[in-house]
Design a protein that fits this description.
seven-stranded mixed β-sheet; Trypsin Inhibitor V, Chain A; six-stranded antiparallel β-sheet; alpha+beta; Penicillin-binding protein 2a (Domain 2)
Length: 654
């Protein structure tokens, strides 16, 4: 009996051990490894998908798209999920343009998943959305409709991820980037997806759209004008800036650098590359002299016949300062700026302490970033006055040397002169709108400081009027029907820590129109071959671009303000300013009141587009009134008939 009892006990013990093992394993699976196995089961039953968000677009001030995100799709087919393979094959072939024979072969191949990369547009895949077994994978691609237009300013994305890498794409990345969504998809044991009330979805939130201050048409005019000028002058590069002085909005920014295969816009040198402005900076020394009361309208210095050996220390060392436009006798401050006399400005600068000269340049924004929304903006170069060579540096600063400014800094400074002495922060952002089109930000002018009083600002504008008028160095910039203010600049190039003999930077700074300025225009030409003075290089480029801007009806110029500025308001303002100073101010081009007006034939513009026609008429001194769009069919007065300059020619287009 003992043996059967022993067997029974052994069997019972075995069962107990087995039960204990099962309980231990169950405890291990449930208590110790429960979370891990639950997660494993969840992964087999569900699939988590990230839903990308559309990146916001960049548009010019008129709504022209500069950078937009387009939606594309990849298509995947799960053959085991198709209810009707033949119908699905016909639908996919028709919508995606895939040969039916290729589709049939893929469906017979036994593959569990068939993938077509495409990319396919939303229109192409729309009929496929409700078909079971056809799965769409959405992704976004950045597209620049205007191609190279303003690309250094617009920038681009990183090649490996949709993040801003340069330009406005980088500086506005957090605004343009949306919030990705998430979806949890349910799958059965065979891996087939199906809809369920338990399906979790968090919809993506698109990024915000940004309306820039740039004017696409004016940007095109600036880039084309700069390209033509650099090719004609065989220059090493250049920059153009258009700025609205009333609100600080940057309307156009063009940059070009010479390369092996021609000119390229590899970087936004309007923000990143300081240059020595030469005589365009003389106005700021004049501002310091006026603010501190060191000069009046009758003060004059001897011009030295255009060559002055300036003493720079007590040991008798001298520095030779010369004028490109040699003059004799004495020069007032106004006349010195008109003829751009280095000698006179160097002498006038000795009336200022280094700290006074430095503070005026700093107050106009030199030596500090402008605050515009552009990454990697240069602060320029402005040494502290305790590092100056007392005699030498003051004269250099007065002539626009030993100071480095970017074209945008110079535009902002001239904008302050146009805006009655108030310096504004330049901006590239006009509005920000959310995905519903609601405006969540609108730019308001951002004052930095009142640099000079309105009275002194008006005095400085009169200096610019004489500098760009008859007998001034900038008279080549004047238009036939409108007057502008401006100052030329020519400086020996400072490169790699030294001045390069025989290489020059030519520049021109303009306010247009002369009364009630709407535009600040900065043109800089690097190392032009042949004639290199700003008055014969940069100034005519400014005139050409303004003519083209006036010929365009979409460019951000208020024609009603132009008309009032050239009418009685101009006369009242000129008289009031002239009454404060003994100088006589005349408009350019000057016309004696009793001299007969020469009539000119109206040019033939039939068959041209309206922009070319308007430009041709403006060049001959006529005003233009457009009737219609497209090709010009006729003009009133007709081609060949003579009329006085300033006559309005009606252009009929179809």
């Amino acid at each position: 009996m003992a043996k059967p009892l022993a067997r029974i006990a052994a069997v019972q013990l075995g069962f107990i051990l087995i039960i204990l093992i099962i309980l231990a394993r169950a405890a291990q699976l449930q208590l110790v490894q429960g979370d891990r196995w639950a997660e494993h089961a969840r992964r087999q039953r569900t699939e988590r998908a990230i839903l990308p968000a559309r990146r916001g677009g960049l548009y010019d001030r008129n709504g022209v798209p500069l950078a937009i995100t387009q939606e594309y799709y990849h298509v995947g087919i799960a053959p085991n999920e198709l209810a009707d393979r033949a119908a699905a094959r016909r639908l996919v072939s028709r919508q995606l343009g895939i040969p039916a024979s290729l589709l049939a072969k893929d469906l017979r191949s036994g593959k569990r998943w068939i993938y077509y990369h495409g990319p396919f547009t939303a229109t192409e895949v729309q009929p496929l959305r409700r078909t079971e077994g056809i799965h769409l994978s959405r992704y976004f691609q950045r597209f620049y409709p205007s191609r190279a237009l303003a690309r250094p300013i617009i920038g681009g994305l990183s090649p490996d991820q949709p993040r801003g890498a340069a330009g406005m794409e980088l500086s506005l990345d957090s605004i343009l980037t949306g919030q990705p969504g998430e979806a949890v998809l349910l799958k059965d044991r065979a891996g087939r997806r199906y809809d369920s009330p338990a399906r979790l979805v968090r919809e993506p939130v698109p990024g915000n759209d940004v309306i820039l201050t740039l004017d696409a048409e004016l940007q095109e005019i600036a880039e084309r004008g700069l390209d033509d000028a650099l090719s004609a002058m065989r220059a090493a590069g250049g920059d153009v800036v258009f700025l609205d002085p009333i609100n600080g909005e940057l309307l156009a920014l063009a940059s070009r650098q010479a390369g092996r295969t021609g000119f390229s816009s590899s970087r936004a040198s309007t923000f990143t590359d300081p240059f020595e402005p030469g005589s365009t900076a003389k106005l700021f020394t004049a501002a310091a002299l006026l603010v501190h009361g060191r000069v009046d309208s009758n003060d004059a210095v001897f011009a030295e016949g255009g060559t002055w050996r300036m003493p720079i220390n007590r040991s008798g060392r001298t520095r030779v300062i010369t004028d490109a436009h040699r003059t004799v006798g004495n020069l007032t401050l106004s006349r010195a700026i008109q003829v751009s006399s280095n000698v006179a400005l160097a002498k006038f600068s000795l009336r200022l302490a280094p700290e006074e000269q430095f503070e005026m340049l700093r107050d106009f924004g030199f030596g500090t970033p402008t605050g515009a929304e552009f990454p990697s903006e240069s602060r320029g170069r402005l040494a502290l006055p305790d590092t100056w060579q007392p005699m030498y540096t003051r004269a250099s600063m007065a002539m626009g040397y030993e100071v480095g400014v970017t074209p945008v800094q110079l535009a902002a400074a001239y904008g302050a002169i146009a805006n009655d002495g108030l310096l504004l922060t330049p901006t590239l952002v006009r509005e920000i709108r959310n995905s519903r089109g609601e405006v969540i930000y609108r730019h308001d002018p951002e004052p930095v400081r009142q640099v000079v009083s309105p009275v002194i600002a008006r005095r400085l504008r009169e200096y610019l009027r004489s500098a760009a008028g008859e007998g001034g160095t900038g008279e080549e910039a004047q238009l036939a029907n409108y007057t502008l203010l401006g100052k030329t600049g020519t400086a020996v190039r400072f490169h790699s820590g030294r001045y390069v003999p025989g290489e020059y930077t030519a520049s021109f700074a303009a306010l247009f129109p002369a009364d009630d300025p709407q535009l600040v225009v900065i043109v800089k030409i690097d190392n032009p071959r042949g004639d290199y003075y700003g008055g014969v290089t940069a100034a005519p480029v400014t005139r050409t671009m303004l003519q083209q801007a006036l010929a365009s009806r979409r460019v951000a110029i208020d024609r009603s303000r132009l008309a009032s500025a050239e009418g009685p308001a101009q006369e009242r303002r000129t008289v009031s300013v002239a009454a404060q100073t003994p100088r006589v101010v005349v408009s350019w081009p000057h016309r004696a009141p009793d001299s007969p007006v020469a009539r000119r034939p109206v040019p033939g513009v039939e068959g041209r587009n309206v922009r070319e026609a308007a430009l041709a008429l403006h060049r001959e001194g006529f005003r233009v009134s457009l009737r219609g769009l497209g090709k010009v069919s006729r003009t009133t007065p007709p081609a060949g008939e003579t009329a006085p300059p300033g006559t309005t020619v009606v252009v009929w287009a179809e």
